Amino acid sequence: MSLAQVVYNISTDNEFASQWNLDPESALADKGLQISRKEQTFLTAGLKNGRFGDSRKVRLSELALVHRGWM
């Protein structure tokens, strides 16, 4: 599965998003999703450092900017 599918699930599924915050690997397994360790680290770091406002919408482009320190 792609990183985009995981981001979509975080943005649209509150239960998945909550579980991701507690245990990303378990959240992925419960949904039958797989991403690389590098993608998981990228996503987790981006979400922790992100500035997504009050919206639950997460965009890969924003995560990339956060990851590179541009946002």
Our count of helices gives 5
Q: Structural class of the helix and strand makeup?
A: mainly alpha
Sketch the topology as an H/E string, one letter per element.
Answer: HHHHH
Give the distance, in angstroms, between the N- and C-terminal Cα atoms: 27 Å
The quaternary state of the protein chains shown equals: single chain
Alpha-carbon Rg, integer: 11 Å
Low-pLDDT regions: none
Number of structurally distinct domains: 1
Question: What is the helix fraction of residues, given as a range?
Answer: 55-70%
Average of the residue pLDDT scores: 77
Beta strands, count: 0
Largest sheet: none
Morphology call: globular
Query: Beta-sheet strand percentage?
Result: under 5%
What do these coordinates show?
The chain has 71 residues and is mostly helical. The chain has one domain. Helices cover 68% and strands 0% of the residues. The chain is built from five helices and no strands. It has helices at 3-12, 14-22, 24-31, 37-49, 60-67. Helix 2 (14-22) packs across helix 3 (24-31). The longest helix is centred in the middle third of the chain and has 13 residues, at 37-49. It starts with a helix and ends with a helix. The mean pLDDT is 77.
Tell me briefly what this model is.
The chain has helices at residues 3-12, 14-22, 24-31, 37-49, 60-67.
List the keywords:
single chain; 71 residues; mainly alpha; 68% helix
Reconstruct the topology from this structure.
Layout: H1 3-12, H2 14-22, H3 24-31, H4 37-49, H5 60-67
Helix pairs in contact: 1-2, 2-3, 4-5
